[in-house]
Design goal:
The complex is a heterodimer of chains A (117) and B (686).
Chain A (H helix, E strand, L loop, with lengths): L1 H7 L3 H17 L4 H23 L11 H10 L3 H10 L4 H15 L2 H5 L2
Chain B lengths: L5 H31 L5 E5 L1 H10 L2 H6 L2 E6 L11 E6 L3 H16 L5 E6 L5 H10 L5 E5 L5 E4 L2 E3 L5 H6 L5 H17 L4 E5 L1 H17 L14 E8 L5 H4 L5 H8 L2 E2 L2 E5 H4 L4 H7 L19 E5 L6 H6 L4 H23 L4 H35 L2 H14 L4 H13 L4 H15 L2 E2 H15 L4 H8 L8 E2 L13 H7 L8 H8 L12 H10 L1 H5 L2 H7 L4 H6 L21 H6 L4 E5 L7 H8 L6 E8 L4 H13 L3 E7 L5 H9 L3 H8 L2
Parallel strand pairs in B: 1-2, 1-3, 3-4, 4-5, 7-17, 8-9, 9-16, 13-14, 16-17
Antiparallel strand pairs in B: 6-7, 8-15, 10-11, 11-12
Helix pairs in contact in B: 4-5, 7-8, 10-15, 14-15, 16-17, 16-18, 17-18, 18-30, 23-29
Classes of the chains: A mainly alpha (117), B alpha/beta (686).
Chain lengths: 117, 686
C-alpha cells in the first residue's frame, strides 16, 4: 500500500501527494468506500493544518497531527474558533470534543473558561 | 495452589532442564564456531533485536575470548573501527543489508581495508545476496549463517524469540518463520528422537507439520540414528497456531508474570525496572542484585541509555521466589509475598538467638542465602507495588470490565459504547483496538455502521496513519475486526464460533461466590474466570477430563480403574491419576471441527519399528513423559502458567512449551501497526 509509505514521509508537500495517491487507489475499489472517505478526510486535515501553520507564522507545528491533537493544539494556542470549525468539519462528536477541551483548558489553567463551560 | 507433586516433578523437571542447557550449548557453539572462522581481532556489529536473545545464551566474556574486541549496534551511518575484521550479525532483513552495504561502500571510499563477514540468523537467504550484488559489494563480504534456534527462557519454556512471527505469517503472508520453526524442530528431534505423534490445529500449524515430517527422511543420514527411532522422553507434539485462538492474547493477562509483561513489558525475559528498585542502600545486597554474568547482555559495552532504568533478568534459576510467584493470579501475589516475608523474618530471628560457636558459624553460612532471598523479596515487593497503581487506573479497570462482559456476551452494544467512551478519553490505542477486536470475535462481527463510526473515531483520535493497521486487522488472513453482516467478499468460514465454544469447552466460570473455589481449581484462574481456548484444546488432547468438568472435584469421586485410562476419550478421570496416553482429538472431534483451520493427527514412526510402538504407546506408562506444545505465532505468559497448572494436575505428564516468541495483545497490535518499532527497539532491546 502506498499509504504505508505516505505515513513515513515527513515533507508536507510530498506527503499530501502520497495520501492523495492512496485516496485514488482506494476509490478504484468499490468495497473500499470507507477507506476512500477516510483518506479524503486525511487530505483535508493536512491542508487545514498547513493553513493553520501559516496563520501561526510557523511557530506552532500542526502538520501530521491527528484530529484530536490538532484540536488540542488549537485550543492551547487560543484558536478556539478554529477548533470549533474543525469540530464541525470533521463531525467530531460532542463527547470527545468536550474531553479534549476539558483537558486543554485544565492544562492552560484557564479556570474562567472552565467555569463558563 | 494445591500440593506439589514432588515425587515426579523432581525427575522430569530435571530432564527438561537438561534439554534447555543442551540447546543453549548448541547455540553457543554455533556462535563460537562462526566467530572462530574469522581469524584475528574483530569488531562485532549487532542487530539490536538479536541482542536480547543472544544475551540469553552467551556472555560478553565468551565473545571477548573469541577475539571480539569491540561491539556496535547495526545502525545507519558510518562505522569507524580499527580492527581488520568486521563481523555483522543480523536477521536477514532488507533494511539491515542496505545499511551494511552503505557502510562497506563508505569504507571503500575512504580507502580503508577491512575484511567483512556477514552472519545471518538463522540462515542465509538468497534475497540478501541479491541485494548485496545490486549494491555492488557482494565480492567484499563473506556470508554465512549462525543458526540460532530454540532458546530456553525457563526450565519448561523454549522460544525462538522471533518477534515478528505473528505479523509475518498472518499479515504479510511470509512463511519463513514456519520454515525456520520446522528446522528448529528438526534439530530438536535430532537431539531427542522423533515425536511419536503430532496433533495440531490450524492451517499454518498443518503446514509446519508437513514440512517437519517431509524434512525428516531427507536429513536422515546413517550417523544420526536418533531420527530413526521415536523419542522415549516425549510422547507427542501438539502444534497450535495463534489464529486458532485469537481471543486469549487480546485479553489482559492477570498472572504475576503476565501482568508484568502487560504493564511494564518483558523482553527476552528481561524487565526494565527503575534503578531505585534494584539497588538497595545496603552495599552487601548490591552484589546479589546485580545480574549475574549470564544475564548481562553481550552488548553492555555500548552505553546507550541514561541510567534511570536497569535490566533485570526474570529467571527462576537465580530467583526461587519468582517461580513461586510467576503463575499466581495477581490478586494472590500479595498474600504469597507476605508469607515469604514472615518466613524470612522467622529465620532471621531464630538465627539471632543462636549462642554457641557452631550455631554462629551455621548462621553465617546461611546468611548469604538469606540475603539473596531477602533481596529477591525486596525486588518482587517493589515490583508488585509498581504494578498496583497501574491496575488501579480507570482505563485498566474499565477495559477489564468490558473484556469480562464481552466474554459473557453481556450487552454487547453497551460494551461497544464503552469502548467509544475510552476512545473519547484518549486511552491507549492498543487497549482500544484489543477490545474492539475482542468484541468483533466474540460477537461474530460488529454492526457495519457502528464499526465504521468506531474506525473513524480511532483514525481521528490516533491519526490517519493507522488506516493500514485497521485494514490488516480486517483482511482475510487475520480477520479479527469484521463488520456484521459480513461483506459478500469474505467467506463465512472466517467467523469464529465463540458462543458455542464457550459452552462446549467450558471457557467461562461463573463469578458467583460458590464458583470461586472452582476458579481456583481450573486453568481459568489465569484470567480470573476465563479459560484460554488454546489451553483447553491442549487439555482436549492430554487431559480430557479437565475440559468437561473440574478435575479437582473429580478427585473425590474416586479413582477409576486404569482401564478407563486406556480408552481415554471423554471418560471421567480423577484429578491426579496417571495421565492417559495421547489419543488425539478423540471425543472432541465435533467441537474442534467448528473452529476454522485444519485439524490433523499424524503418527510418526521410526524406520523398522512399526506395530510394536503403537501398542506400547497405548499402554499406560509408569514413567513420566513430556508433551511438547508448540505455539506457532507466539504464546502468552498466562498460557504458559495455565499449562503448568495442567501439568501439575496429571501424574506422569509434563508440558514443555515451545513457541516462536512471547506475545501479548499490545505487542501483536504494535507489530502489525509497525509503529515506533524501529525507534523503541533501540532503547528497549538491549
Amino acid at each position: 500500500l502506498s499509504l504505508d509509505e505516505a505515513s513515513r514521509i515527513l515533507d508536507p508537500e510530498s506527503k499530501l501527494t502520497a495520501v492523495k495517491a492512496a485516496h485514488k487507489f482506494f476509490s478504484e475499489d468499490k468495497d473500499r468506500s470507507f477507506e476512500t472517505k477516510m483518506m479524503d478526510e486525511s487530505v483535508r486535515l493536512l491542508t487545514f493544518q498547513q493553513q493553520l501553520e501559516k496563520d501561526a507564522d510557523g511557530k506552532v507545528p500542526f502538520f501530521g497531527l491527528s484530529v484530536n491533537e490538532t484540536l488540542r493544539t488549537c485550543l492551547l494556542n487560543g484558536l478556539s474558533k478554529r477548533a470549533d470549525k474543525l469540530k464541525s468539519d470533521f463531525k467530531v462528536p460532542d463527547k470527545r470534543f468536550w474531553h479534549i477541551k476539558l483537558h486543554a483548558l485544565t492544562t492552560l489553567g484557564d479556570f474562567e473558561a472552565l467555569e463558563a463551560f | 495452589m494445591s500440593a506439589e507433586p514432588d515425587h515426579q516433578s523432581t525427575s522430569s523437571v530435571n530432564e527438561v532442564n537438561i534439554d534447555g542447557n543442551l540447546l543453549k550449548e548448541i547455540a553457543r557453539k554455533g556462535l563460537v564456531d562462526a566467530l572462530n572462522a574469522v581469524n584475528g581481532g574483530k569488531t562485532l556489529v549487532l542487530d539490536a533485536t538479536l541482542a536480547g536473545p543472544l544475551g540469553l545464551v552467551t556472555e560478553v566474556s565468551l565473545l571477548k575470548h573469541h577475539g571480539v574486541d569491540k561491539m556496535f549496534w547495526l545502525e545507519a551511518g558510518a562505522l569507524s573501527s580499527i580492527a581488520a575484521n568486521i563481523v555483522y550479525l543480523c536477521r536477514p532483513h532488507i533494511k539491515y543489508v542496505k545499511i551494511i552495504a552503505d557502510q562497506i561502500k563508505g569504507h571503500i571510499r575512504e580507502s580503508r581495508k577491512h575484511t567483512y563477514t556477514l552472519l545471518l540468523v538463522p540462515r542465509v537467504s538468497t534475497l540478501v545476496t541479491q541485494i548485496l550484488e545490486e549494491e555492488g559489494v557482494l565480492g567484499d563480504i563473506t556470508i554465512s549463517a549462525f543458526n540460532l534456534q530454540f532458546i530456553p527462557l525457563a526450565e519448561d519454556v523454549i522460544s525462538l524469540e522471533y518477534e515478528s512471527a505473528f505479523k509475518d505469517i498472518w499479515v504479510d503472508g511470509d512463511e519463513t518463520v514456519i520454515y525456520d520453526s520446522a528446522q528448529a524442530l528438526t534439530t530438536f528431534q535430532k537431539l531427542y528422537g522423533l515425536f511419536p505423534r503430532i496433533v495440531g490445529k490450524g492451517d499454518h500449524a498443518l503446514r509446519l507439520t508437513t514440512l517437519l515430517t517431509r524434512e525428516t527422511p531427507k536429513t536422515t543420514n546413517p550417523s544420526s540414528d536418533t531420527l530413526l527411532s521415536n523419542s522415549d522422553k516425549f510422547d507427542s507434539l501438539i502444534v497450535l497456531d495463534r489464529r486458532v485462538d485469537m481471543i486469549t492474547p487480546l485479553l489482559t493477562q492477570l498472572t504475576y508474570e503476565g501482568l508484568i509483561d502487560e504493564l511494564i513489558g518483558i523482553k527476552n525475559s528481561h524487565v526494565e525496572l527503575p534503578m531505585s528498585l534494584l539497588s538497595p542502600p545496603a552495599p552487601a545486597a548490591v552484589a546479589t542484585s546485580a545480574p549475574g554474568p549470564s544475564t548481562s547482555p553481550p552488548t553492555s559495552t555500548v552505553p546507550l541509555k541514561k541510567d534511570s532504568t536497569k535490566k533485570y533478568h526474570l529467571t527462576t534459576a537465580t530467583d526461587p521466589l519468582f517461580s513461586e510467584l510467576r503463575d499466581l493470579n495477581f490478586s494472590s501475589v500479595g498474600k504469597q509475598l507476605n508469607r515469604v516475608a514472615h518466613r524470612l523474618d522467622e529465620n532471621y530471628k531464630t538465627n539471632l538467638q543462636s549462642k554457641t560457636v557452631a550455631q554462629l558459624r551455621d548462621f553465617v553460612g546461611k546468611l548469604g542465602g538469606l540475603q539473596t532471598e531477602h533481596q529477591s523479596l525486596r525486588t518482587h515487593t517493589g515490583l508488585s507495588e509498581l504494578l498496583v497503581p497501574l491496575t488501579r487506573t480507570e482505563h485498566f479497570n474499565k477495559s477489564l470490565e468490558i473484556q469480562q462482559n464481552l466474554l459473557a456476551s453481556y450487552e454487547v452494544t453497551g460494551q461497544i459504547a464503552a469502548i467509544e467512551e475510552l476512545i473519547a478519553q484518549g486511552a491507549d490505542m492498543e487497549i482500544v483496538l484489543r477490545l474492539l477486536c475482542l468484541a468483533s470475535i466474540t460477537a461474530g462481527g460488529i454492526k457495519g455502521k457502528t464499526l465504521e463510526n468506531l474506525k473513524r473515531e480511532i483514525l481521528q483520535t490516533y491519526g490517519y496513519n493507522l488506516l493500514p493497521l485497521l485494514l490488516s486487522l480486517g483482511s482475510p488472513p487475520l480477520a479479527i475486526l469484521l463488520a456484521n453482516p459480513l461483506p459478500a467478499s469474505t467467506t463465512p468460514s472466517l467467523k469464529y464460533p465463540f458462543t458455542t465454544l464457550r459452552k462446549s469447552l467450558r471457557l467461562l466460570i461463573d463469578d458467583n461466590p460458590e464458583a470461586l473455589d472452582e476458579v481456583e481449581n481450573d486453568i481459568s484462574f489465569v484470567y480470573s474466570g476465563y479459560a484460554p481456548i488454546s489451553i483447553r484444546l491442549v487439555q482436549c488432547i492430554a487431559q480430557k477430563g479437565g475440559v468437561l468438568s473440574n478435575p479437582a472435584e473429580r478427585e473425590k469421586v474416586g479413582t477409576e480403574s486404569t482401564a478407563a485410562n486406556q480408552k481415554g476419550a471423554g471418560s471421567s478421570l480423577g484429578g491426579r491419576v496417571q495421565a492417559h496416553p495421547i489419543v488425539g482429538w478423540k471425543g472432541f472431534d465435533d467441537v474442534i471441527a467448528t473452529i476454522p483451520g485444519e485439524t490433523f493427527d499424524i503418527i510418526q514412526q521410526g524406520a523398522g519399528e512399526g506395530q510394536v510402538l503403537i501398542t506400547s504407546m497405548l499402554q499406560p506408562k509408569e514413567k513420566s513423559t513430556i508433551t511438547v506444545v508448540f505455539f506457532l505465532g507466539g504464546c502468552t505468559y498466562t498460557e504458559i502458567a495455565a499449562l503448568r497448572w495442567v501439568g501439575r494436575q496429571n501424574k506422569g505428564r509434563k508440558f514443555l512449551v515451545l513457541t516462536t516468541g512471547i506475545v501479548n495483545g499490545t505487542s501483536i497490535i504494535d507489530s502489525i501497526a509497525g509503529l515506533g518499532k524501529s525507534t523503541s527497539s533501540k532503547t528497549v532491546g538491549i
